[in-house]
Amino acid sequence: MIIDYLKGKAILAPMAGVADRAFRELCVEHSAAFVVTDMVSAKGLTMHDRKSKELIALSEEERPAAIQLFGSDPQIMAHAVYLLLDNKPDIIDINMGCPAPKIVSNGCGSALMKNPELIEEIVRAVVRETTIPITVKIRAGWDENSVNAVEVAKRIQQAGASAITIHGRTRQQMYAPSVNLNIIKEVKEAVSIPVIGNGDIVDGKTAKHMLDYTNCDAIMIGRGALGNPWVFEQVNAYLKDGTLLSPPTIEERMETMLSHVEKLCLYKGKKIGMMEARKHAAWYIKGIRGAAAFRQEIGMLSDMDELKAMSQKVIEAFYQNNI
Ligand SMILES: Cc1cc2nc3c(=O)[nH]c(=O)nc-3n(C[C@H](O)[C@H](O)[C@H](O)COP(=O)(O)O)c2cc1C
Fold first, then answer.
1. Domain with CATH 1.10.1200 in the chain
2. What is the DSSP string of 179-191?
3. How far is it between the farthest Cα atoms of the chain?
4. Closest ligand 1 atom to the C-alpha of 97?
5. Which of 196, 223, 280 to mutate to test the pocket of ligand 1 (most atoms within 8 A of CB)?
6. Which of 184-206 are b and which e, b meaning 16 or more Cβ less than 10 Å from the residue's Cβ?
7. How far is the CA of 19 from the centre of ligand 1 (A)?
8. Is the CB of residue 61 less than 8 Å from the CB of residue 38?
9. Cβ distance 57 to 26 under 8 Å?
10. Considering the entire predicted model, what is its pTM?
11. Strands 218-221 and 10-12, how do they pair?
12. Which ligand 1 atom sits nearest the alpha carbon of residue 39?
């Protein structure tokens, strides 16, 4: 069983443009059970698109790792699976939950929730192509009038998938209101393959609540890990025996931010790395007393020296505000 060989129950969610190699390695270092790449276009891979090929690259430091594919044509999806086998993913995940207009307008992502027969065909086609476990990430349904995750999950299981992740919201709901735990519970009751619950998990308590309420086998964390890779250790400790780990110190936070951005620059080059560093830096300082004053500075960061100087000022501001 796919879940049995994982070292914990907390998985890093795929987050396009955010959960890249640098962040995934960091989350594995902080005990994420496995990580998932950005969604990659199956069509792009079959057309040998350079960007798509870059997205499926996996390093040894981020394993176990899943490559996530999106697409709606079973043959193209199967061909894409064949093409990514050289990258040796531990898992291949199929995206059937993305709500973005440019994805759903092509019949991909969560638009597939409107077509359970096609979902089954896609899963069958990709399962036939490889012995690597295939997992599928779905939503509750397209909208509140068509909540069909249970039917979809049964079809996914029937087609040979190894696990299902369910984000307990419909496509129409995008990322709010709060997640519907009942639909995750219903999916878990309906299938025998492992079910991974997803939505709004931010710490040990919310993780335990999801696991207890829905009886799901593992949980996936997205936004709760932004600027907060410690969340995986915190969840693991809480699930083990209720331990509440202390949050990282301000120094630890800043050190982690710096090494994260160093990796970003190493893997993507200084220009792109520093551009992307801005959003990560904003997440790392979120909630730190006195740090709001640095928001504007973050928007103009252009090299590591500036980031180091800013991190020093954040530390000073933190202690001044704590007196
Ligand atoms: C910036 C961002 C990018 C995302 N990209 C993907 C993606 O590529 N594939 C996918 O299946 N879900 C994607 N998601 C959805 C997340 O994986 C997750 O299902 C969602 O954020 C709910 O979990 P959370 O409440 O823990 O954030 C993305 C979410 C965010 C915030």
1. 250-321
2. --HHHHHHHHHH-
3. 63
4. 11
5. 223
6. bbbbbebbebbbbbbbbbebbeb
7. 9
8. no
9. no
10. 0.97
11. parallel
12. 8
Ligand 1 pocket member 199 (CB < 6 A): yes
Q: According to CATH, what is the number of the domain 2-241?
A: 3.20.20.70
Going from the Cα of 70 to the center of ligand 1, the distance in angstroms, rounded, reads 13
Q: Which residues of the chain does CATH 3.20.20.70 include?
A: 2-241
3-state secondary structure of 5: helix
User: Any catalytic annotation for residue 98?
Assistant: yes
Residue 98 Cβ < 6 Å to ligand 1: yes
Single-letter code of the amino acid located at 182: N
In terms of C-beta density within 10 A (0-12 exposed, 13-18 middle, 19 or more buried), how is residue 9 classed? buried
pLDDT in tens, 64-123: 999 999 999 999 999 999 999 999 999 999 999 999 999 999 999 999 999 999 999 999
What span, in angstroms and rounded, lies between the C-alpha atoms of 72 and 14? Answer: 19
Distances in Å between the alpha carbon of 306 and those of 16, 168, 283?
26, 41, 17
Question: Which string of DSSP letters, residue by residue, matches 298-323?
Answer: HTT--SHHHHHHHHHHHHHHHHHHT-
pLDDT mean over 24-47: 98
**What is d(CA 172, CA 29) in angstroms, rounded to the nearest whole number?**
35
> How many Å apart are CA 247 and CA 180, to the nearest integer?
28
Q: Which two tokens stand for residue 33?
A: 């059970």
3-state secondary structure (DSSP) of residue 222 = coil
Closest atom of ligand 1 relative to the 109 alpha carbon: 11
| Environment class of 306 (CB within 10 Å of its CB; exposed 0-12, middle 13-18, buried 19+) | middle
pLDDT more than 70, % of the chain = 99
Map residue 57 onto helix, strand or coil. Answer: coil
CATH topology of domain 250-321: 1.10.1200
